[in-house]
Amino acid sequence: MLESVTTTDFIQYHNLEPNDAISSSKCVVPLAPNLPLQPLSQHKVAKETTKVSQGSKLDINAKKRKRDASPVPNYDKRARHSAGSMAEVKKTAASQNERPSPVPRSLPVTAKGTSYAVNRYTSIARPCACSAEVDTTDSVSSYDIVKGNLGNFKVYFINKHDPYDQSFTPEYMPYVDLEFPMTGSSERFALLSPKDDDGWHPIRELRDVVYLMVKFYLPEEFEQALGDPSYDRVPKQESARQNLALPTPSSTPDGGSSPASAPRPLKPRSQHEGNLLRRMDLAYTAKDGIAFKSAIREINNKLRALKKSPNGNLLLKNVAAWDGVRPEIVVQIYEETYQRSAGPRVKELVKYQAFSSTTYGELNSGLIAEMSQRAGLKPGVNFLDLGSGIGNVVIQTALLSGCNSWGVEKLNSTAEIADEVHRVFKQRCHLWGIEPGPSDVFQGDFMQHTDKLQSIIQNADVILANNFVFDPSLNEGLKALFLDLKEGAKIISLRSFCDGQVTGRNMGAIESILDVESFEWLSGDVSWGDAAGRYFISTVNRSRVGAQYEAMYREAQAPARASRRRK
Q1: Are residues 362 and 521 in contact, defined by beta-carbon separation less than 8 angstroms?
Q2: What's the gap between Cα 238 and its chain centre?
Q3: Hey, is 463 helix, strand or coil?
Q4: Pick from 367, 405, 413, 379: nearest CA to 526
Q5: Torsion angle of the four alpha carbons 166, 172, 178, 182, in this order, in degrees rounded to the nearest 10
Q6: Residues in CB range of 475: below 8 A, 6 or more apart
Q7: For residues 516 and 512, what is the distance between their CA atoms, to the nearest angstrom?
Q8: Band of pLDDT at residue 359, cut at 50, 70 and 90
Q9: How distant, in Å, are the alpha carbons of 119, 361, 379, 478 from that of 462?
């Protein structure tokens, strides 16, 4: 039985195809705080939206599921778990003190309703194949991170055939090497597990890498070279899927992506002996170290054969056929980058005063993907993150959309970590055979107008200001900064910079040149709290000032004309 759902249901639970998106002009936006979003009437929604089966709704607001003993890979929530001695990043603001994000007091004359849905699962069209050389010296591997934080890890595998074998204990640093898509590239993974059950798990990460290569990198004619992955697998861990608001594989729309980059439909369960993926998962579940290493060794043999084909590296040729980088791969590369750079230094990111302008907080991958689509990020577009932290948004937008992405961070210690994150990020993209967009992160105060920053701002097409906890004086300073933006530039913010009304008093202020749209972020979209909230995209539109001047002129002339007629 199908049921009609409201606009609000679509926002919170459904990923729609572009052709199914609800017309923005038919949605209602709240005009003042504390006014709930008004859904369309039942009969109107039934007429104007597609019908969705009740069973296909996603439980976006559900709590993070605990891991079980299933052989299915489960992603760690990267922002909260790392290889460092601190397993969980403290929330930068207590939930009881969390301030709601207000909506504008009124809407601009030209504003549109903004409750239409965005499919976070959709790739942004761009070339993906890696062409630039990357400096791979001082590369950081899974093995290196575990070895440097060995006290946080414990034994996972055993030798089922020899109970006295100690080779899988931390003292002996057990490992396997795994082939990556780039020619001549591989990585060493430690075969140990975290003492903290919620910590970063290098063995699970290895399995995730294998599954993503099978799903997106193998040419169609070799799709079962490593065996049939369809017996009961899902491609991503639950926390990352929840973070992206992704549907399960059986209900995932293709999102307009090319056949080469789209996940292949699951096939009936297969139990043939050559299924290396099943052998790997069974060995992992049984904690059989010898069987696991044997499965990885045979997987490597298959991958090397594809990389050394007479027709060239077939894994990279498949990347060249993509029309965009899948969000799952973006999440995977960023999580790998984080664990090999910022993860071991996580304590340095949580020592700032809550609700100060230097508070460290992150936007999660699903929200970044949504913002990128709404703001129109793509190759050639210039993006700037004001207060970029460790470069989370900078590198994910560069990878997802191929845009020119910059970030400026005021705090020296955070900017130092961002430099390392950026270096490792380029190496990880190279391993995966993907070319990100040009990107850079640098230390600086965006309120001090250096020549470099001023040039970037004047040429920016999209600016992100995560101003959720900025003090009023800093927000006022940003308003003055935005007056230099070019026509059509967009500002993404977590608090609105204006009420949208053009009056004689604010004719020369930022309020007079911005069209403001309001959108909802979902529970889990930000690192500092679990509550949903709103963010804003403001577009520079200076024609509004001219229209207001004309209206004021006509209004001033009206009494004079009336008095002449009376004479």
Answers
A1: no
A2: 15
A3: strand
A4: 367
A5: 180
A6: 467, 495, 497
A7: 11
A8: low
A9: 20, 20, 13, 14
pLDDT in tens, 405-454: 999 998 898 999 999 999 999 999 999 999 999 999 999 988 887 888 88
pLDDT digits (tens, 9 = 90+) for 205-247: 999 999 999 999 999 888 888 887 665 444 444 444 444 443 3
The residue with tokens 């930022």 is 510
The Cα 315–Cα 215 span in angstroms is 11
Please name the residue that has the structure tokens 């997987």.
299
Half-sphere exposure (Cβ direction) of 276: Cα atoms closer than 13 Å = 19
Residue indicated by tokens 């996603």: 58
Residue 512, both tokens:
């007079």
Tally the C-alpha atoms within 13 A of residue 238's C-alpha that lie toward its C-beta.
Answer: 14
Q: CA-to-CA distance for 299 and 302, rounded, in angstroms?
A: 5
User: What is the CATH architecture of 97-124+344-550?
Assistant: 3-Layer(aba) Sandwich (3.40)
Structure tokens at 516: 């403001």
d(CA 251, CA 249): 5
Q: Are 93 and 469 in contact (CB under 8 A)?
A: yes
Residue-level length of the chain:
567
* pLDDT confidence band for 116 (50 / 70 / 90): low
For the chain, counts of helices (H) and of strands (E): 15, 13
Q: With beta carbons less than 8 A apart as the criterion, state whether 474 and 389 touch.
A: no
φ, ψ of residue 220 to 5 degrees: the values are: -55, -40
pTM, two decimal places: 0.71
Please answer whether residues 19 and 256 qualify as being in contact, where contact means their C-beta atoms are separated by less than 8 angstroms.
no
Hey, where are the domains in the chain? 97-124+344-550, 142-320
User: Among the residues of 308-391, which ranges form H helices?
Assistant: 314-320, 327-339, 365-375
Report how far residue 422's alpha carbon sits from residue 338's, in angstroms, rounded to the nearest whole number.
Answer: 10
**E-only strand ranges, 160-239:** 175-179, 186-190, 192-194
Tell me what percent of the chain is helix, strand and coil, each rounded to the nearest 5: 40, 10, 50
Of the candidates 419, 399, 407, the one whose C-alpha atom is nearest the C-alpha of residue 335 is: 399
Nearest to 435 by CA among 140, 209, 179, 132: 132
How far apart are alpha carbons 397 and 400 in whole angstroms? 5
- Contacts of residue 550, Cβ cutoff 8 Å, sequence gap at least 6: none
